[in-house]
Amino acid sequence: MRIPEFWLRSWIDTDASVEAIADALTMAGLEVEDLESAAPPFSGVVLARIESAEKHPDADRLRVCRVNAGPGAESLQIICGAPNARVGIYVACAREGAVLPGNFKIKRAKMRGVESQGMLCSQKELGISDESEGIVELSPTASDALGTNLRDLLRLDEKTLVLKLTPNRPDCLSVFGVARELSAVLGKPMRAPEPLTAGLLQNLSSDLVAPSRLAARAMGICPVGCQAVFPIHLRPETHPGARPLCGRFSSRVIQGVNARADTPDFVRKRLEAAGQRCISVLVDLSNYVMLELGRPSHIFDLDALAPMADGGIEVRWAHEGESFELLNGQSPVLSPYFGVIADAKGPVALAGIMGGQRSAVSDGTQNILIEAAFWWPDAVRGRSQQLKFSTDAVWAASAPRCPMAPRISLSRRPSGGPMQSVADPSSLSSPPMRATGLSAG
After folding, report:
1. pLDDT digit string, tens, across residues 233-287
2. What is the pLDDT of residue 403?
3. Which domains does the chain have, with CATH numbers?
4. Helices 265-273 & 281-293, crossing angle to 10 degrees?
5. Coil, helix or strand for 379?
6. DSSP states of 252-282 as a string?
């Protein structure tokens, strides 16, 4: 598991070095295998803005760009072949004398007879990722001045902790869980980072509550703004005493979302530092909550769901021979060994594993149903191996957790509209959860 240093520090106030943090966690039983840098060493790369971009007089695919690389410096003329080089964007500019990964030194050079005084860099050229389709497009804040060192701007010198977690510590499958552990080890108080409600993580050492409840208090409650009702049916054959599948299924309707909105910059930076690829604002926010709180969730396009005869959707064991297309393109043939979430037309998600293509969100999505469920671990374990793939959600759902925790992830709010109160059917009377760790948050 990858925990970015700056994300971890947003939860706990400590001036300990990242090396000291890694040692403390390792000695507490959370082995830190490695401290990874966000990018390999490079120097001389700054925040800049393209002021003009003209076609090269002797090359169709090249542009002659005038670049503002900071106050007190003359604008630079830089030749760039990236298709996304255009006026007004903020870029990573390697000025003359810069040294890129691999000891590649930037010098003035002529390209087809026109002088270039630097280089506009892609993520691959900076060693940040394998993305090489175009130059980096940055989104600086008002306080980020042109000419700011890129390593400082993107926190590239901060480390990412790579943890090797054992199955008996599902309470640490999140930034919050690791921060809670570190708080106990160092004797430092936790704090609720922005944009969470501040001042609610006091006196942690004497607050002997499940971490999920502690996080819930920190999250606060999102206001209810619509009266939409979308029933969830936990079918009797999935209850304890039969073959237990789902202990709690929490859901929430949100209307009028803006699925085309940009993912907030701080969310994007944290996801990328944790090794997650950004996809779209709805998917990214779902992944963000999973990484931050350890609570997998899934977002359905509400308008793509066909309500059952008794309304809403159902949680049940699959019927023999059922099949539907998953988000990864597979269409497995199911048996009652697998749990599913289904509507009137059939399965729309594999329980605790992956959603289906038919109800997936898209840029045109306007109304959504967010699901956060507690799946009995024995109802999830082994299923993804049989299908020959795995996901982060599988690992989280397969570990014993607090059955009350799914409500927490629903207190995070995606972009847009009125929210329904939480629909929260459960069947928790038995079987008891096996205690395999210190905490089941």
Report:
1. 888 776 666 778 888 888 888 888 888 888 887 888 888 889 888 889 889 988 8
2. 53
3. 2-34+160-208 (3.30.56.10), 43-153 (2.40.50.140), 232-409 (3.50.40.10)
4. 60
5. helix
6. EEE-SB-TTSPPPHHHHHHHHHTTPPP--HH
